[in-house]
Each structure stands twice: as C-alpha cells, then as structure tokens.
Amino acid sequence: MSKKMIFVQQRPDGDWEAKNAGAQRASVVLPRQADVIERAKDLAKKAEAELVIKGRNGKIREKNSYGNDPCPPKG
Questions:
Q1: Would you say the pTM of this structure is higher than 0.70?
Q2: How far is CA 61 from its chain centroid?
C-alpha cells in the first residue's frame, strides 16, 4: 500500500502550494508559506497523509505524519 503524501513547495512564480503526490494541480496556492502549511496540515489530517514541507531551496525541511503510524516505528 502506498502512503498518501502532501507536499508544500514553492512555485516558479514565488507563491507556495500544497499538492498531493502525483496530482497535476495544487490543492492550495497562497503567497505565504506559513498560510499554506496551516491549510496543508488540515488536508493531511483529513486524508491521514504524510505532510512534507520543502524550503526555498527545494530540500525537505520537515516531515509530519498524520496517518496510522506503526508504534514503535520501523528502523
């Protein structure tokens, strides 16, 4: 089973987006990253997905899981 993922990343025009993995269109587009993260957290909780936040440089800055995580985690 593949895990649902939502990415927060900067667009080429400078705005920020929240986008489901594999989707062509963003779910949320706003000018401030903090606002997009807030909305993306709500989306991730509803979808029980993993939220991946990327910084301006495109590298992963933070990951949070809102799904059914095994306890204790593997690895």
A1: yes
A2: 11
